[in-house]
Amino acid sequence: MSRVDRIVGFVEDRLSLDDDRDMLGKAFPAEDSFLLGEVALFCFLTLVLTGMFLGMFFEPSTSDVTYEGSVERFQGEDMPEAFVSVLHITYDIPFGMFIRRLHHWAAHLFVASIGLHMLRVFFTGAYRNPRELNWVVGTGLAALAMGAAYTGYALPFDEFASTATGIGYNLAKSIPILGGVVSKVVFGGEFPSSATIPRLYFLHVLVIPVLIGVLIAVHMGILMRQKHTEAQREGDVDTQRGIVDSDDDSRVIGLPAFPNQTAVSAVVFFLTLATLSTLAGFLPVHNVAEYGPNNPAGTPELIMPDWFLMWVYGFLKLLPSWMSFTVAGIHVNTEFIGGIVLPTLVFAAILAWPFVDFREDPIHFTANPLKRPWQTAVGVAAVVFIMIASIAGMNNIAAKVLGTETGPINALLTVAVFLGPLAAAAVTYLVLRGNRPARADRSAEEVASDD
Ligand code: HEM
Predict the structure, then answer these.
(1) Ligand 1 centroid from CA 217, angstroms
(2) Any ligand 1 atom below 6 A from CB of 223
């Protein structure tokens, strides 16, 4: 017996793990793209740990204090305490700059890996019966991750971030009838009031992370209960526990959760941490010293949200002001339509998708996207739509690059945001149309008639 086996046996024995054999033996298909969910998980863990470090030094207050840190330019100046504490973390606390950068890059990789994980689940049809519920929970996680990043962006209270997050305040205020209450609850009154930063801080460090933690636990619980999807097998598979038929999707073939998958996950964890550490070591983030503290009288030259909210900003830029209207004394403006209604519709469409491409019977094999013409066409159209809307969010940069005004760029992008996804869907459908659907995607009658 090897030393590793002896250690495993020792732990199993002491903790009566034999009773939980099913759980520890749960098979994880050896599929690289299935690791994206784990990357998201490890980013969340990194965010919590680095956030705890930052929380020890950050001051969620906008009261003025005199700066006495090591940035020459601000010496002796009275500035908001939140801003001063972030300067302090960045330039005076040992490892402060590194941990702040680690937190920043983990937030970006968190959202990026969630987006990619969602695309993998979409394109392989892993949202179908019985996994619709986990898709719904996942959609909630995606929305919360964006909320966490947005509330964190505001905290340093520098000129750039506070102007950009002020857009969110205007959106909250634009909600007909409820706008006043919602903006007061989330932002603590007129933006930026002395309650704004404490309110966003509370949401950022407690409410949203706890909700994310709870939803991740539910997500993982459902996953353990339902087991993973698995790629359609080429033929019957000879396993240690006997031959598994190529069509038998009641059993998953893969690595046991413990110890094999645990070892793979450990590698993914350290690779995620290594990537984030490299980024944090070499790439600076949101330079608060350069932006300076929030200045109510000034407007920075460039206002931009983070990349993953750029599509929402794009809607705001593309909607013409004449789309505002008043019905029965209730005013509906373009900020509400572009910033609240359209993003809500996007999330509603994501939520509804498993019930649009609905299956009566459970499917445990993943689909090949190249063999699902219309579903893949919808996915490609959605990606193109979000990309064009995101370019619209950067219309001023596009205008600068092309040496023109934003007017013609907006006109072009307004047409493109409708026609681009349609054209992408049509081309995808036409190219894939001739492909025969994968076995798991055919009806029982079709399969029977083949055999
Ligand atoms: C904090 C965010 C998230 C975390 C930490 C997370 C984590 C995971 C992990 C570790 C898995 C198993 C491995 C894998 O298939 O990648 C998984 C599976 C799954 N996730 Fe997520 N996920 C998140 C967000 C989402 C989102 C946004 C969606 C879709 C809207 C989603 C839908 C699913 C589904 C349907 C499965 C089962 C897939 C299968 O069995 O093949 N998840 N998730």
Answers:
(1) 11
(2) yes
CA of 389 to the centre of ligand 1 (A): 25
Residue nearest (by alpha carbon) to ligand 1 atom 5: 41
- Cα end-to-end distance, the chain, whole Å: 47
Mean pLDDT by 10 residues, the chain (451 residues): 82 69 78 95 98 98 96 96 97 97 98 98 97 97 97 94 90 96 94 93 98 98 91 84 84 87 96 98 92 82 88 96 92 96 98 96 94 96 98 94 93 97 98 79 55 38
Cβ of 51 less than 6 Å from ligand 1: no
Cα 256 to Cα 23: distance, rounded to the nearest angstrom: 9
Task: Say how far apart CA 119 and CA 125 lie, in whole Å.
Answer: 10
Q: Whose CA is nearest to atom 38 of ligand 1?
A: 126
Structure tokens at 389: 């809307």
Domains and CATH numbers, the chain: 31-232+257-307 (1.20.810.10)
Q: Residues 425, 381: contact at Cβ < 8 Å?
A: yes
Measured in Å, residue 139 CA sits from the centre of ligand 1 at 10
Q: Which residues are within 8 A (CB) of 108 and not within 5 positions of it... i.e. 6 or more apart?
A: 149, 306, 307
Ligand 1 in reach of 197 Cβ (< 6 A): no
